[in-house]
Amino acid sequence: MLTYTYTAQDPASGRKVKATVEADSEQSAAKLIRAEGLVPTDIALSKATTLGALGKFNRVKSKDKVLFSRQLATLLNAGLPLVQALRNVNNQTESKPLKVVTAHVINDVEAGSALAKSMEKHPQVFNQIYTSLIAAGEASGTLDKALERLADQQEKDADVISKVRGAMIYPIIVLVVMCAVVVFMLVKVLPQVKVLYSSIGSGAQLPLVTQVLLSVSDAVIHWWWVFVILIVILSIFTGKWARTLGGKRVIDAVKMRAWPVGPLFMKMYMARFTRTATTLVASGVPLLQTLNITAKAIGNIYVEDSILKAAEKVKVGKSLGDSLEGDPNFLELVPNMLKIGEQSGSMEQMLSKAAEYYEKELDNEIKAIQTVIEPVMMILMGVIAFIIVAAVLLPIYNLASQVNNVV
User: Fold this and answer.
1) What is the DSSP track for 289-352?
2) Domain 156-407: which CATH class?
3) Over the stretch 78-96, which tens digit does the pLDDT of each residue have?
4) pLDDT tens readout for residues 10-52
5) CA-based angle 102:104:109, to the nearest 5?
6) Cα distance between residue 102 and residue 134, in whole Å
């Protein structure tokens, strides 16, 4: 349910009434107001609803946008007027942030604004790719097809991101478990070894590995709060640094070059570039505009710079394939496919084939990384387990040797 602020006229007394009403849509709100014997003169979403729904933690999910695009395309293809189609889709939408934004869009469209212009006011939900495709669809009279292409592009992009995240989850979980086990051993197990040795009073020196780990254990037990503060401060500063231009450049460079994730991210960027460009070109968006939009959608500063430099070369008459050829931030296949597309007049088909190729390659790269990471993580776990076991058992073994010597 959404909260609407309204102004209405009371026919009986002639006075103006200002209040709020809970309803699923503006039409429902108007019906509720009329049911109270009032004549609504102005109905708008309350500021609290808008700010609350579009807050930092209330983002619209990709699947909700895909469903919105497909439903709207289906209704428009069936011949429904745009405003009616938007209302029907909004009534079926479960996402509150998307409901709020769509309600604003409906109000703007009813007031005479184009759909693309209305959506441009909400960049947190409808990015430049979305609004550009909508504008191209409106201009060519193929809005339903543009929405279908958008849904396809969003699904494929979300699928690529999901696969990359999935490849990163396993090592992260293993590292977290390893850290938890190490902390437990340092805090609970190793101090018992020290107590055991002290209670016997053998006077023998503990093994070096045990001494080192006991020192770490004492620091963790007595100064844990210092470690917590340092981790919090480091996390805050790292987060702020990562949002600076210098931080982004370092992180993006690591993504592209570091083993084993470098090849994975490069293929992801190529798949994203070719898939996004395919969608824009197929919808009739001009090439220069396609390049400028795609550059912002890539998510990597270096690849973005390469695309914008290529756009400048295209502006003065150079072909896109030649402009990207030899660029270290692009894999060789992309400019080669672009050249073929430009020479044969089948740019859209060549971009689509390149996108499909890199999406398959991305799957293969993820499988390869998982194959490599599993044994590496097992070896790392084995080494850590060996060190801890040695730190615990060596003192006990020394005690047992001393007892045998005494006997």
Assistant:
1) HHHHHHHHHH--HHHHHHHHHHHHHHHTT--HHHHHTT-TTS-THHHHHHHHHHHHT-HHHHHH
2) mainly alpha
3) 888 888 999 898 888 888 8
4) 777 778 878 877 776 667 777 887 887 777 777 776 665 554 4
5) 90
6) 15
Cα(407)–Cα(405) distance, integer angstroms: 5
Lowest-confidence segment of 13-27, 233-247, 351-365 by average pLDDT: 13-27
Domain 62-155: assigned CATH number = 1.20.81.30
Cβ atoms of 197 and 399 closer than 8 Å: yes
**175, two tokens:** 């590292």
Backbone phi, then psi, for 16, in 5-degree steps?
-90, 140
Domain boundaries, the chain: 2-45, 62-155, 156-407
Residue type, position 46, single letter = S
DSSP 3-state of 94? coil
**CATH number 2.60.40 given to 2-45:** no
CA neighbor of 85 nearest in space, from 115, 113, 50, 41: 115
Neighbouring CB atoms inside 10 A of 26's CB total 21
The SS3 of residue 395 is helix
